[in-house]
């Protein structure tokens, strides 16, 4: 897994994103907006770390900060259109890198690898849904 993760990191570096920034973009693409505390919880990092992480995305125009509608003291984070584009470029870069690796496999093993990735995606999606459903 660590070796595969390193290839993903390299693909993200090509589009000038860190894995943590990529995770922020993914999370924000799944919700309308998120507070820093939700981002910190989702990424399993401290709130100050989230601030530093998001600062770079805000500077690049990928994320915007807005006062929360219900409490102007709180700040919401939203994915912007350029942020969505950056996420799509990152997804393509990762898919291309994984495709290069998969091309080294025999057809049967390549199909099994993709089937395995799809199964992990399903498991991760279900785990996220269960977590979000908790009160």
Element-by-element helix/strand order: HHEHHEEHH
- Give the helix/strand class: mainly alpha
CATH homologous superfamily label of the largest domain: Winged helix-like DNA-binding domain superfamily/Winged helix DNA-binding domain
What is the CATH topology assignment of the largest domain?
A: Arc Repressor Mutant, subunit A
CATH top-level class of the largest domain? Mainly Alpha
What does this protein look like?
With 135 residues, the protein is mainly alpha-helical. It folds into two domains: 2-104, Arc Repressor Mutant, subunit A (Orthogonal Bundle), CATH 1.10.10.10; 107-135. Helix content is 70%, strand content 9%. The protein contains six helices and three strands; from the N terminus they run ααβααββαα. The protein has a three-stranded antiparallel beta sheet with strand order 1-3-2. The two termini are 32 Å apart.
